[in-house]
Amino acid sequence: MRKQALAGVATAALCALMAPASHAAQPWMNTKLSADKRADLLQAQMTADEEYGLLHGHMPGMMHNRPASVPRVAGHFDGVPRLGIPDIWESDASLGVANAGREHDDATALPAGLALAATFDPKLLFDGGAMIGKETRQKGFNVLLAGGANIAREPRNGRNFEYLGEDPLLAGTLDGASIRGIQSARVASTAKHFALNDQETGRMVASAHMSAEAARESDLLAFEIAIERGQPLSVMCSYNRIDGVYACENPTFLNDILKGDWGWKGWVMSDWGAVHSAAAATAGLDQESGQELDRDVYFDKPLREAVASGKIPAARVHDMAHRILRGLFASGVMDHPVKAGGLDTAADGKTAARAAEQGVVLLKNDAGVLPLSAKSKKIVVIGGHADVGVLSGGGSSQVIPQGSLKLPPPKGAPFWSAGVIYHPYAPLKAIEARAKGGSVTYFDGKDPAAAAAAAKDADVVVVFATQWTSEAMDVSLTLQDNQNALIDAVTSANPHTVVVLESGDPVLMPWLGKAGAVVEAWFPGANGGETIAKVLYGEVNPSGRLPITFPASTDQLPHPVLPGSDQLVGGSQDATHPFDIDYTEGSDVGYKWYAKTGKTPLFPFGRGLSYTSFKYDRLSVKGGQTVQVSFRVTNTGKKAGIDTPQVYLSAEPNRTQQRLIGWSRVALKPGASQLVHVTADKRLLADWDVGAHVWKVNGGAFKLFVGPDAATPTLTGEAKVAGAALKP
Ligand code: BGC
Predict the structure, then answer these.
(1) How far is the centre of ligand 1, averaged over its atoms, from the C-alpha of 200 (Å)?
(2) Confidence of residue 178 (pLDDT cuts 50, 70, 90)
(3) Catalytic residue among 87, 105, 271, 348
């Protein structure tokens, strides 16, 4: 049965086993019972071997004798057919159903996580999650390795494009919405990579050090919020060490915080190759993924031996299997077995594009440059493979829609990289379609002088710049391959130049003063070329806001030199000697760091322009148990647009740390106004008190401001808040 079902994989479909009809009558199939109760009833029928079988699984691509029936997917675990437990089929990731290495496969790509985060819109994250959750099912998977919740503490992190920005409230809120969306399709999702996994350089060996207070108020807070809002059925622990102890065998993080303080009942799965001992089970790890990548299959023989010798209680193994089964029940995977088929990338591409359109950030716009109009007759488009498609991020999350261009990966990329992938949605084509009656000429940009000469007498120049980022490597904030020289030459030749960035991280912009407009399009995903053209031509009024600070130089960063970058031992950046990362900036991540040190970034967190303008007034602030803020937003321009005013705490009684405490996305017609209300989550008014193990709100006066970004206080206020101690 399995063999037959999986034969469809080559044509983009997997199929998990259907529970035979006879199982429907079993007591554990009673949907009126809780997932925990159902798991108990099922477990009562299972042998020890069957339980162990759930605890370790394959990375099929790395299997020595991979059965033809098992395709190259991220993860596979055998089910227990006699009890109706389906095989577990796992796919990456947060931005779509990844399909590198499976020719003729197709999937819809969401835009980069940073683009999604730039929408500041949980609804769009939910919709995107629901779309990729649906495709997960349609492609025969029942677990999606999604929910990337690591905050962008390190702007050079090659995986920031999979995550949701630098602020824990923003990242946690949006990640929770995405996970809820995914799981609404009756598949299980992870939240990952837990925890303090903030850079890729040395990710397998680096040891992160951060004070307990700082961790709770930053990286952990993002996970805490994501988990409480999204209720992921699984959490993936990360590769790195924390205070010398691997994250996947770290009892403080897994047992005490995740399962203890947060009362989370799901199963902890390891990252692929992140298990180092059977003792990880005692620390809170429930499942060993990708066992081919570990030195031993620790959760098979070594775990059985540890149990036999009394080192690990048998009850713990039972609990591990219970957590996994509970997830299969709670997700709907048991009651609604996955059945592949029905993929519709054309329809799903529309959902992806809706999110991407809201995530484009307009960073600069000199008068009269954007939006473009039919008056621009002579258009020169340069660089970025704009004639072919739009860039995407690399690594395990890589989605490769049919028709994509694959270029060889650059030096420093992981050996297993699928290459630099351009999704097949060419901006050039989308611009040509709008430049009716005009001429559009394309230059690949390899010859800056030729491009600049052509740009000189154009009505408008659109130059595309790309920064490829990938898992298992970090990047320079400086655009590579002579792109800065190209942009410099073109903007010098013609100030009517729009620079469109397709980047997975912030970039430095030495040519900023000369550019007429700058548009950050990130990795825009399905229909990305159309998305960019719609913004350029004003069919979409840009409304994205930066979810990550753009530094003016690397000297401004807490770690001007990337930790571990002097420890490389091979061609791939995640291969290094062990080293420590001292996160001395603590919870002062991103905009908090700039506020604290008084540095002025290139573009602050929250920044994003529109083709209209907004005004804020009528601030009212109430204190008491928390802070409640209301104010009025008015569209003072001539176009309909969406604004995202943000509310920041600027000082609390005992300690000063700027913190985003809320925002609202407001769509307004010209001249229209709306009242906005924001109530602060009390944890954002509190500091983590290590001794008392509580969130401590220091009673007194709290200062705050409303602004269009983290660096522009427009309305300021103050509220008296009562002291409190909140249990985690
Ligand atoms: C990544 C995970 C991914 C896993 C399976 C690892 O290299 O860190 O995010 O889910 O591979 O593909």
Answers:
(1) 12
(2) very high
(3) 271
User: Residue 346 and residue 338: Cα distance in Å, rounded?
Assistant: 22
**Two structure tokens written together for 607:** 């920044």
Sequence-separated (6 or more) residues with CB below 8 Å from residue 506? 155, 477, 548, 549, 550, 551, 602, 603
Beta-strand pair 207-209/497-503:
unpaired
The structure tokens listed for 148 are 């990337």
What are the DSSP E strand ranges found in 416-516? 420-423, 439-443, 460-467, 497-503
| CA–CA gap between residue 33 and residue 38 (Å, rounded) | 6
pLDDT at residue 574 in the model: 75
Q: What is the 3-state secondary structure (H, E, C) of 298-313?
A: CCCHHHHHHHHCCCCC
Give the closest residue (by CA) to ligand 1 atom 7: 272
CB 91 within 8 A of CB 71: no
Which atom, in ligand 1's list, is nearest to the CA of 92? 10
Share in percent of the chain as helix, strand, coil (round to 5): 30, 20, 50
Cβ-based neighbours of 107, under 8 Å, separated by 6 or more:
12, 96, 97, 98, 99, 135, 139, 343, 345, 399, 400, 401
**pLDDT mean across residues, the chain:** 95
As a whole number of angstroms, the distance between CA 506 and CA 266 comes to 34
CA of 174 to the centre of ligand 1 (A): 21
Q: Name the helix (H) or strand (E) containing 651.
A: strand 646-651
Question: How many CA atoms within 13 Å lie on the side-chain side of 416?
Answer: 11
More confident: 19 or 596: 596
List of residues 6+ apart from 47 with CB closer than 8 A? none
Ligand 1 binding pocket (C-beta < 6 A) is: 74, 92-93, 145, 192, 271-272, 396
Query: What residues contact 301, with CB distance under 8 A and at least 6 apart?
Result: none
Mutate to test the pocket of ligand 1, among 88, 145, 237, 239 (most ligand atoms within 8 A of CB): 145
Nearest Cα residue to 129 out of 197, 192, 198, 186: 186
Residue nearest to atom 11 of ligand 1 (CA): 272
Cα–ligand 1 centroid distance for 270 (angstroms):
9
Identify the sign of the CA torsion 172, 178, 184, 187. Answer: negative
582 a catalytic residue: no
Sequence-distant (≥ 6) Cβ neighbours of residue 327 within 8 angstroms: 35, 188, 233, 234, 266, 267, 333
CB 243 within 8 A of CB 209: yes
**Phi, then psi, of 688 in degrees rounded to 5:** -80, 125
Helices 48-55, 314-331: inter-axial angle, 10-degree rounding = 70
* Range of weakest confidence among 21-30, 87-96, 281-290: 21-30
- Matching residue, tokens 């790890």: 285
% pLDDT > 90, the chain: 93
Cα–Cα distance measured from residue 271 to residue 694, given in angstroms and rounded to the nearest whole number? 30
Pocket test for ligand 1, best of 76, 201, 471 (most atoms within 8 A of CB): 471
Using DSSP's 3-state secondary structure scheme, residue 142 falls into: coil
CA–CA separation, 140 vs 666, rounded Å?
38
Please name the residue whose Cα sits nearest to atom 4 of ligand 1.
Answer: 272
Q: Which two tokens stand for residue 268?
A: 């902890």
